[in-house]
Amino acid sequence: MTTVVSDQTTALRVRGLDVVFTGEREVHAVREVDLEVRRGELVALLGESGSGKSVTARAIMGLGDEHTRVSADELVLSDVDVLGLDAEQMRRLRGERVSLVMQDALSALNPVLTVGAQIGELFRVHRGATRAQARERAVELLGLVGIPSPQRRVDDYPHQFSGGMRQRILIAMAIALEPELLIADEPTTALDVTVQAQILDLLDDLRRRLGMGVLLITHDLGVVMEVADRLAVMYAGRIVEAGDADTVLTRPAHPYTEALLRSVPQAAARGGRLVSIPGSPPSPATTPPGCSFHPRCAYAIDVCRTARPPLREVTPARVAACHRSEEVLDGLR
Ligand code: SF4
Q1: Residue 322 Cα to ligand 1 middle (Å)
Q2: Residue of 88, 92, 105, 101 lying closest to 54 (CA atoms)
Q3: For ligand 1, what atom is nearest to the CA of residue 256?
Q4: What rounded mean pLDDT belongs to the chain?
Q5: How far apart are the CA of 298 and the centre of ligand 1, in A?
Q6: From CA 164, how far away is CA 153, in angstroms rounded?
Q7: Is 238 touching ligand 1 by the criterion CB < 6 Å?
């Protein structure tokens, strides 16, 4: 593997990521995305469905198919420059140093194997553990992610667990080999609110204890408000605002972030009205000219319809792509 000189605290660094779906017609799904996650840090990638978040995650993990063209100026996972890796090296890196947790735990787990066998296999394949050692590590991991009576439950099958418990088992599998980066793609979407909060607390706790970076992908701003250190907001395949989570959530600089905040009940309750964002996000094949948010934006002016705003620093350590960020920050329409 190609090791690059990098800051040893970096779990993920992406610069200029582009993803194009090739087929009868090329569709540019993700453009010029920059992202950074340090070890022990939780960064949320936020946006409505169709904004390009999951496409970004799959591209980072090298999980595209033959109809996907991925390019980037830089793509570093932990301290490895993955742009120089072949398919086998990438597969090994994915298994050992970077993990992905998806939302549908039932289809991600093998129904005919006990959860202990599925977790234990990771230790047997990647660490050369014996059956007994692998079982012992599986019990430890089930305990770590909060499965009660792990000694007994290690021999149960996936269908014997609730949805929330199955999601914990997926997280146990994802952290088994102590990755430097965990990408969690809508890990709580299928769960009720209480279990959702428990899973987020678990991710929050594990990243601190294990010092792993977490990239949390979600459409739900309510989900990230409590746990994210930093936040990147995506719209129509591009990052439109990014920065320290407290700064962005307290005083957004992009109308889309502001609109997302107003649509979250607990945020709106702090003094704003609860409002939904009019219209729907554009498909990547029909992105509007100028600022792609302009058909839905309450701040839109003439220039927004023709000139795409560049991503620029609008306050220290925070970037936004909007012609009117200064007015948005001042609350002026
Ligand atoms: Fe709205 Fe214009 Fe800013 Fe786009 S550039 S978010 S349309 S004000």
Answers
A1: 5
A2: 101
A3: 6
A4: 88
A5: 8
A6: 15
A7: no
Residue 279 falls in which region: left (phi positive, over 0), alpha (psi -120 to 50) or beta: left
Distance 179 CA to ligand 1 centre (A): 39
Q: Is the minimum distance from the CB of 309 to ligand 1 under 6 angstroms?
A: yes
Q: Which atom of ligand 1 is nearest to the CA of 240?
A: 6
Is pLDDT above 50 for 6? no
Sorted by sequence, the CB contacts under 8 Å of residue 158 that are 6+ apart come out as 105, 106, 109, 110, 111, 115, 166, 169
Spatial distance between the Cα atoms of 179 and 211, rounded to a whole number of angstroms: 9
Task: Report the pLDDT value the prediction gives residue 61, as an integer from 0 to 100.
Answer: 87
With 0.85 as the threshold, say if the pTM is over it.
Answer: yes
One-character DSSP codes across 165-232:
HHHHHHHHHHHTT--SEEEEESTTTTS-HHHHHHHHHHHHHHHHHHT-EEEEEES-HHHHTTT-SEEE
CB distance 296 to ligand 1 below 6 Å: no
Cα 115 to Cα 157: distance, rounded to the nearest angstrom? 6
Å from CA of 58 to ligand 1 middle: 29
pLDDT in tens, 38-55: 999 999 999 988 899 999
Whether the CB of 299 sits within 6 Å of ligand 1 = yes
